[in-house]
Write a structure and sequence with these properties.
Number of helices: 8
Order of helices and strands: HEEHEEEHEEHEEEHEHHEEEEEEH
Structural class: alpha+beta
Strand order of the largest sheet: 8-9-10-7-1-11
Distance between the termini: 32 Å
Helix content: 10-25%
Strand content: 25-35%
Shape: globular
Number of strands: 17
Amino acid sequence: MTDLLETVSASGAVYDCSHWGRLRLRGGDRLKFLHNQSSNNCLVLQPGQGADTVFLTSTARTLDLVTLLVHMEWVDLLVSPQRREFLLKWLDKYIFFGDDVQVSDRTSDSYCYRVFGAVSDQIADQLGLQPFSQPYAHVTLTYENAPITIAATSGLAIPGLTLWSDRPLTDLLNAHLQLNDTDWEHLRIRQGRPAADAELTEDYNPLEARLGHTISFNKGCYIGQETIARLNTYQGVKQHLWGLELSAVVSAPTPLLLEGEKVGLLTSCTPLNGGAFGLGYVRTKVGGAGLTLHTPEGIIAQVVEVPFLRTVA
């Protein structure tokens, strides 16, 4: 059986993520507002640039991992599908009288695609794009009489692009391998991208999820900042997210044991080559990559690095 990750990495593929949430912020205070509401330094971003950022509770628990793209007159946010309505209300709640910020939901009237590997190179050539100088850089051009934004991020640690358009791009993309939600779930677990309702919940903070690339430790106050700063300063992170090579498929969530003691929690699992691969949190004090754990049923879980967390953490 051909490995999906190898196929996507070598030959490329397309994932239609138009059901993911797409929010747009306008107004003169839009970047300042996002800067104050999320973990990354949004004020340094110029039009044509972007970043990942995390929305947090006041106690630094993770709400969602979000990609933001800065345009000349607005900022676009790509959010997890199950967090769209929540974040729309969350952002609106923090817009106070006098703030020049307007938030709108573009999900139903736009389309979004992740394009991986060789397919992204073909699409770039077809659209006449020059190589991007940095991750999350993006341009907007006209394709078939409609605007399309192309950003230098695939959402995984696989080279690729994100395409955001006001029209479906089936004519541009349908000739290539199409991935469904099950395929994406498999890839994101193999790559180590944490997901809402699995690794990203109010039980964990972004330092535990090893999302250090989404956090600015030098910016001013934002929601959850005090807790993040304290954890970072005093090295108070008690668990970290890792990949897990499993001897069999496991239903998540499942405890991870070391010599009979619970030392972690498996949060996601996908079948792989007669066994499985998963993601899970492991207590810092017991170790990391190379550690051998077990589930209560005796299934072996070997702790390993994963590309997304290794690349961006």
